[in-house]
Amino acid sequence: MALPTAAELEAARERLLPDVVPGPDDPALRVLFCGINPGLVSAATGHHFARPGNRFWPVLHTAGFTPRLLRPDEQGLLPAWGMGITNMAARPTARADELTDAELVEGGRVLRALVERLRPAWLAVVGLGAYRTAFADRGAVVGAQEPTLGATRIWVLPNPSGLNAHWSRATLTEEFARLRAAAF
């Protein structure tokens, strides 16, 4: 996949990135992964977690969610395996810290409605700080959460962005694998 040009990245600030959700012929949604918001590379390409250096796809595979390493442009395969992807906030940015708390809180409201409609077994929020803000839970830690959204359990995962360097690929894989063991 060729990287977008600077002009394409700037234009991506105005794009929405569609969710990856199951269709009527797909199995039940076991895990809905929720990123913080689309990065500019993701918005430009139309694929979640598309920035080179983002560890989501490699960790998803090594944790056992996918039978092989997927490229971001293969995200459409996830629903057949009981998974989907959405984002907390819709606005694409170069860095997640460009979002306001108000955007995350509103994103949490929209996310709750999506979860109510899709009814996944697990909502996996990929980003502790975003979860704490959107769900007004400053004491949350990585892992399974006590609150639920109806019958949907919540698991907070570390952000797999390469900018989140204090989580190694190995420790990310361990945490994703804990969710997989609970969800499948």
UniProtKB/TrEMBL annotation:
It holds the Pfam family UDG. SMART domains: UDG, UreE_C. Its EC number is 3.2.2.28. Keywords: DNA damage, DNA repair, Glycosidase, Hydrolase. It is an enzyme of class 3 (hydrolase). CDD domains: UDG-F2_TDG_MUG (cd10028). InterPro entries: MUG/TDG (IPR015637), Uracil-DNA_glycosylase-like (IPR005122), Uracil-DNA_glycosylase-like_sf (IPR036895). Residues 21-183 form the Uracil-DNA glycosylase-like domain. GO terms for molecular function: hydrolase activity, acting on glycosyl bonds. SUPFAM superfamilies: Uracil-DNA glycosylase-like (SSF52141). Gene3D superfamilies: Uracil-DNA glycosylase-like domain (3.40.470.10). NCBIfam families: PRK10201.1. This is G/U mismatch-specific DNA glycosylase. It comes from Pseudonocardia lutea. The gene is mug.
